[in-house]
Structure formats: structure tokens, C-alpha cells
Amino acid sequence: MDSFDCDLFVVGAGSGGVRASRMAAARGARVIVAEGSALGGTCVNLGCIPKKLYSHAAHCHEQFQEAVGFGWHVGEVSFDWQRLRTRRAAEITRLNGVYDKLLSGAGVRLVRGWARLLDPHTVGVKSHDGEEQRFTARHILLATGGRPQRPSGPGAEWAITSDELFDIDPFPRRLLVVGGGYIACEFASIFQGLGSQVTLVHRGPRILRGFDEEIAGFADLEMRKKGLTVRLNATVAEVQRRGDVQVVRLSDGHTVEVDAVLQATGRLPLTEGLGLEALGITLNAEGTVPVDARFQTAIPSVLAIGDLVGHKALTPVALAEAMVLVDHLFGDGQRPPIDYEAIATAVFTHPNIATVGMSEERARRLHGEVRVFRSEFKALKHTLSDSTERTLMKIVVDAATDRVLGMHMVGADAGEVIQGFAVAVQAGLTKAQIDRTIGIHPTGAEEFVTMREPVR
Fold it and tell me: Has 311 been annotated as catalytic?
């Protein structure tokens, strides 16, 4: 063991990598982590955190409008894109420093540079000036995360990804978003709320594939109410550049003039330059790194977690995987495996979407007979706000056991509501237990405990 430079070498200082590094060091392991970019990974720098900050900013526009219905006299308002960008950047820089202190405080050595595997126990780290250091490790953990899929097709040379959108300059008054997944839908909602006229183009028949179909369809309609234009079963056929304007012709015959095109058609595992193939690690068809239940690759000393393995591309999942892995390597190995079926997630569209467990479609495939409970309503707030926004809540129950298989919501603070129910779903919540629960009145969340008659 002492013949190695460290017990654990972590490639990548994102959420999963930092958590694994800190927890391993706390158990007495000698840990080195390599990172060539900003600390905190995608979530902190180009994902969850800045995106949620921009979502808060976008909701302010609605709140100004809704305040009138409650007696407030709101004067002329304006939006300063440069100030939002500057404030966001300052907060991200602060968080980068927090991550640096977390690592140093835990006794983890941070090496700046891009890492590649040289053999099952050796890592080379090339600094930004081209110098390479070599380190030996008992275990090597890959936690490099993912990256946006680069634009392709007509107009690809002018299109941007979500990485560039946070600092786009000037603010796009007209924005075309290509994609139908959660990232595309979130940015479409955010920029529509900030004042851009947004058109969302998706090649499929519906947005948010993989989510409950009824929930996705309801969210689509609600986003359109906010002014978003959605064009389904369409692709970009041609793009012409006229000065700063892009004239985009779609396959459905429509033409849109925009200031910017965001290609948000998915993310890919970040494996380039790691040297995996040379070591005999063959990637899965979708580019993820294959691992076993203990996150070991085909090389026992090389492990991988997070977006790189593709179980669920969510920050809390990477954190949980890091804890399981560290317990296996440096603990007693008794930490229970992750239940990937009962992981809650949220989509920060306007309105928000949140879900835990199975969609109705998946539940029917796996369990056959299910009971579905549904409630759609206008939230109390909007009886005075004059907003036409509506909320949808849905519970999917196994008819044979009464166990709740899935809970879904579209509406304000959906993520906050579903997070609480996620604990109960993970613990085996039944519909009878929901029925015995007294609601908090008046709240939107109480609707989950008042549904008595199944709709199907």
C-alpha cells in the first residue's frame, strides 16, 4: 500500500469526485484529485446552480405582473442582463473557493491539470503549461462527468451549447432552442421569462421523453401559455446568416428569424483523453463507462461514477455513488446499494415539474394493473393574480399491493413538494397511508393527500 503515491487518485473535481475525495480522506486514505477546469464540475459552473439562479431571475417577471392583482402598483421595470451575469459569476467564483477549501480542509491534495491513465495504477497529469507529472495509486476513480453534445447539421458553425448560453452577449431578444429534453425545456422557459421570444424545436412528437406522458403534455401546454412557441416533429432544414440575424427554415415549412440558436440535444460522457481504450476498457454504445455494482470497470483498480457511467445523470446520484464506493473501498462495505427506481428529480421549467418513481406507462409495463389518481386545479394564489397557470398532481399505485409506484407534479415549487414525498416513496409508501395523512391547509401540496377516487 505504501508503495503507491496515494490510496485513491480521483480524476475530476466535480460533485462526485469531491465527495469521494473528502469521504475517503476522512477514513484515513491518502487522496489526490486532478482537475483541469473550475472546481465543482458541471453542476456548480455550468449546470444546476447557475441555471437555477437564472430561473429565479426569470420568475421575477411573472411576480411583477401577478402583484397587481394583490393591490400592488408596480412601476416600469427593466431587466439588466449584464448585472445578472456578473452576479452569477461572482457566486460561482465563491463556490469554486468553497470547494477548494473543502478539499484542503479534508487533507486532499489538489493537482491542477488534465489526467490520463497510463496503466492500471498510474496517472499522468498534464498542466496548462504542458508539463506532465505522474502519480501511482492503489485505486483510480474516474469522475469526469459529461459535456454538451456539440452542434451539428445546418447552421452548426453559429449555434451554441448550454455552456456558452450563460454568458451570451448581447442578450438574445429572439432565441431558437433545438431539443426536447429537460435542458432544452428549462432554458427555453428561463429565457422566455427573462424577456426573449423563444421558439423550441423538437424532432419528436412530444417533449420530455422518458417522463410521464400526461405530465409532459400538461407541462407543454402550460409553457405555451407563458408565450413559448413549441414546434414538434420538426428539425432545422437550413440556416442563413444575415449580419447578426440567423434565418432558420424548419422542416415543417416555418421560418424563424433569431439572434441565437441553442443546440440542446443531449449530453455525452466526458471520456476523451482518459486513455481507456489502451487499458482495455471498452465503452458502452452510448459512450458511458461500464461498471459493476461496486463501480469497478473491467480493470479492478479503476472505478467510475456519476454521469460517466450513466445510471442517472443527476448531481445527488453522483454524490450517493461516491458514498457507496468509498464505503466499499475504505469502510465496512455495509452501505446499501442505490435504488435508482425511486430517485426524485425536478425540471425547472415554468411552471416546475417534479417526479419520483415510475411514470404511468412504465408502471403498467412492469406491474400490469395500476390505479391512477389525478388532481388538476388553479392554485389559490392565481385566483387573484389573474394568471391562467394550472397545477397537475398525479399518483400511480400498484393495484395489487397498494404501494405508491410514482408521484408527479407540474406547478409552483414542484421540486420542494416532491422532495418530501420522495422519502416516503423510497420507504414503501402506500396509498392507504397517504389517505390517513391530514393535509396542511391551504397549500397546493395538500392535494396529494385528498385524492380518493382513481381516474383509471
Answer: no
